[in-house]
Write a structure and sequence with these properties.
Blueprint: H1 3-34, H2 38-74, H3 81-110, H4 119-153
Helix pairs in contact: 1-2, 1-4, 2-3, 3-4
Length: about 150
């Protein structure tokens, strides 16, 4: 078994799960919040929380591990400019994601027995939505760097 191809496959697969789950759960939360229905919001937020623990968290942990493995296998110095930028962008995504998980749990809990959507749930959603953008844009930029780094930084 070729270590490089294994590392590359795991890195691509985990990035797909990380990004795909993020986009999918974000869409579901936005759609649920638009319903103004606490039952729908609670069920959706509950599923989103589970998806984060089952898919996003393991993929998010696997990404840096496989990234470092690939760096080692390819012989890149850890301080290549494009890698340094990737580390910063991944940190931005992580720092935005951590409170997002807490906000999803808060929205789930606030709507568990509510007959109308509490104002606090809408406030938490607005913060959740705002934090999603830096994470999304950081991951888009990381994908760009992974594809374009050879001609730019060789």
């Amino acid at each position: 078994m070729d270590a490089y191809l294994t590392a590359k496959w795991l890195h691509i697969l985990s990035s797909t799960v990380l990004f795909g789950t993020g986009i999918g759960t974000a869409f579901q939360m936005v759609w649920a919040m638009r319903s103004d229905n606490p039952v729908v919001i609670h069920r959706t937020a509950s599923g989103v929380v589970v998806a984060d623990w089952l898919f996003t968290t393991p993929a998010g942990l696997l990404q840096p591990a496989t990234g470092l493995w690939l760096i080692h296998l390819q012989g890149y110095p850890m301080t290549e400019p494009w890698l340094l930028l990737t580390y910063v962008l991944y940190a931005v995504a992580f720092v935005a994601w951590v409170p997002v998980v807490g906000l999803q749990i808060r929205i789930r809990n606030l709507t568990a027995t509510a007959t109308t959507v509490p104002a606090a749930a809408y406030r938490a959603f607005r913060i959740w939505f705002a934090l999603g953008w830096p994470a999304f844009l950081a991951l888009i930029a990381i994908f760009w760097l992974m594809v374009h780094r050879p001609p730019l930084w060789g």
